[in-house]
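Sequence dictates fold. Next comes a concrete instance:
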Amino acid sequence: MTSSLYFLRIPARRLAGYLFCVPWIALPLQVLAQQPGSQRTLKEISRPYYAAAEFELSHLDATNFDIGALQKAIGTAPASLIRWVRNETRWVPYAGALKGARGTLLARQGNLLDRNLLLAALLEAGGREVRLVHFETSLEQQKVLRKAVSQQRRGGRAGYQRSILQAGMLESFCNYSGLGREEASRFIERQASIEKRVEGALKTTLRHQRDALFQLAGDRFSPALDDPWVGMLGRYVYVQHRSSKNDSWESAHLISQAPVAAGEINICAPDEIPEAWLHQVGIKVVVVQQRGKKIRRQVALERWIPTAMAGLITGQLQLVPADLVDVETLIEEVQESRTANPLTRRMAASRAWLPLIRLEGMQASVGNAIDRSGRLIPVSRIGATGQNEEGLGKALGFLNKQFGGTSDNDSGILKEVRIEFSSRTPGQDKVRVMTRPLYTRLEDDASKLDEDQMLKRSLALNSRINLLLTSGHLPASFATQKQSNARLGLRLATDYITAKGGEGWHAKVKSESIQNISKKFHGFPTKLYGISAARASDETFQAQPNAIAWWERLTVGEGGQLSVRCAVDFIENHMETVLSKPEHRFRSRMASGVRDSIIETEALRGVGKDGVSSTARLFAADGYRGWKTIATREDPVLKSGAIPKTALEAMNKDLEAGYVLVARSQGELGTWVWWRLNMASGEVLGMAGAENWIGGQGKAEYVLNHLAIALRIYGIWDEVNSVLSSTECLWQYAQMRIEAFQSLRTELTDPERINWIKDCSPIPLRPGDAVKEAVKETVLEALK
């Protein structure tokens, strides 16, 4: 979706962790900020954040997201479990298995199949043996089912939900945490002000923006007379259960007047759903090579993921330099030179990139390596499965030899590398495809790339995409659990290193221990859970998988300055609505799309000198003026020649697909933004594009003193100074996530920030063998 992006200026010696595929952890918004005029230690600064994490975890209602906890709360009686699913989950229309048991519980919504999968899971957790039964229904039976649907009103998730810790819980919070009343009150008030601002934006700003879009394009709207239940009641599903193999099967129905099968009855286990019933998300790494006048499209890596398997899936996609194997040497060169030159030279000289997809709880996928002429080298043929260090080492050595003699124009030209996200819906032949370019060659085909151009290519290909694939709304409590656990994991790792202390302690600790501690600093960006939870609405539901991404891309600025460009990207944001009237359904879908752009704006608000660059922010900043409705490719705005090629191609593709655009009539810092609107359904997606990317990155430049990342990457504040000088390699992988850096702008004045930066000069490296080994193992782990 629209871009929400900012730059982080990172000293070169701290960039190795980024290059070696290690994501940042989720930190509290201001946990590492120095308050103006204060000299507080890390423990003093972070204390209320960690206390809040513990407090909220202790007050979470796990029945909102944990099937086992819910079953224990309800009991083992089948009648009670059936009653809960029947009354507390809403029956909504879509085909096939989308959410599965877990996703249905999280959303409190689902079709008949997914709700029965939840019921089966609850019965099984209560000690029952279960199976699914299904049969085709007659037209008369479908009428009965349609009546049952109209009588069902409960279930689903409410709109924006505030955090557990509120002003009324001050006394309880103080007693639980041991914090002083003033410190606890100040923390609660700060969090409450942020939540109030977000809540207001999701009401007032959303209404204003939706009304403005109606003013600009309302005469073209033609709400479709659709009935979402058509074709959705042709199969009836229910659960059978028994306490032991010697007992007879008992039937469990989610409606009071269950139809009776007139024909064939089919039986399957809950984990043996026919593949044709499954919603699936596909991820492809597509390579476009040019040889003379011929264009060749190749797939370097492809993976299909059934969302019902987990209901919610996290993962990471990245292309890593396949010939960057001597990690320790590179780190030493960077630190000795105290410049980015060794790093940028190595990146510019990269001859191949290896695509990787890692999904939570699943086997990682390693694709074919891409060389700089656009050729693919199948790693699989040498047995590189990524399961052990030896196999991976052989694979990288093989690739290094394979690519040793290639140059850009030896056998072709690498024209483009893009990611294609596909959504496959049961019963539909058409596959919905969303494209995100990683690299597009803009130079003349006959020219040879210079070092700067090769560096930009390598950095673009090395982009990392953290993915959250959802099948439905998430409860705020689930996001709180994920974010709080990540914060407490950081505290555990920091306390461990602080407690060790002493010069040379690293040499006495096993590399496995250092690696385990390192992992606490680079988990999945849990901000995505909060963003997804904020999308919840009691009048919408997902009828297909949605995909939200957190992009991290390196770019080169003036003087060789390296920056990290980060963004929230709603790759797929389609929502359906429970409302019945066409005009109400249209407005509901439209509000959902506008809400998404507002959410990503609010999620990154306060970051960057010029704020977040997103469709919603620029739309509001312009007072909803100066934006134009575009319905044809012949529009003067598109013919002006001012729009970058990649952005223009995306806008034209939207028009070809039948969308109408509401676009800003001029760009901002090379970025163009637009809304794309489906005139029949009301579906809205905020988009952005620039020279060689679309969708995922906006633009908001940072000057050095706003985000110098003055926190010592090799340490956090005064308490760990004694050990950081000997653990610098480890801390290169402790890249502090965006929330920690936001506060440098919001909490400090420019003079205070500059003084702080001066005080945080780099510490000389004295790495021990254990730390070196941890660095090596971390890199290898990233490729498994």
Observations:
- The longest strand covers residues 294-306.
